[in-house]
Design brief:
single chain, 89 residues, alpha+beta, SH3 type barrels, five-stranded antiparallel sheet, 29% helix, globular
Length: 89
């Protein structure tokens, strides 16, 4: 199963405008934000799939998505494991 998971943008990469550091359930990773027409700023939320931000979402949408994802169990855990293993730099 492929999931989009919400992450909060922590910081933008100063030298690579297509990269941002996000926090997803305590996991902090660099992701690519180059697909977004309106780049996020720190404090905004994005929906992430395979290391790419697919869309910006608000905090309420992020909370609802996280509640759902935590409820489905193993698929969410697998997605977090994949995120932990990713190294976009």
């Amino acid at each position: 199963m492929c999931l989009g998971i919400p992450g909060e943008v922590i910081e933008l990469h100063p030298e690579q405008p297509d990269l941002a550091k996000v926090n997803v359930s305590g996991v902090r990773r660099m992701i690519n934000i180059g697909l977004l027409q309106d780049p996020p700023v720190p404090g905004e939320w994005v929906l992430i799939h395979v290391g790419f931000a697919l869309s910006k979402i608000d905090e309420q949408e992020a909370a609802v998505a996280m509640q759902f994802l935590e409820g489905i169990g193993q698929a969410y855990e697998d997605e977090l494991t994949a995120l932990k293993a990713s190294l976009i730099e």
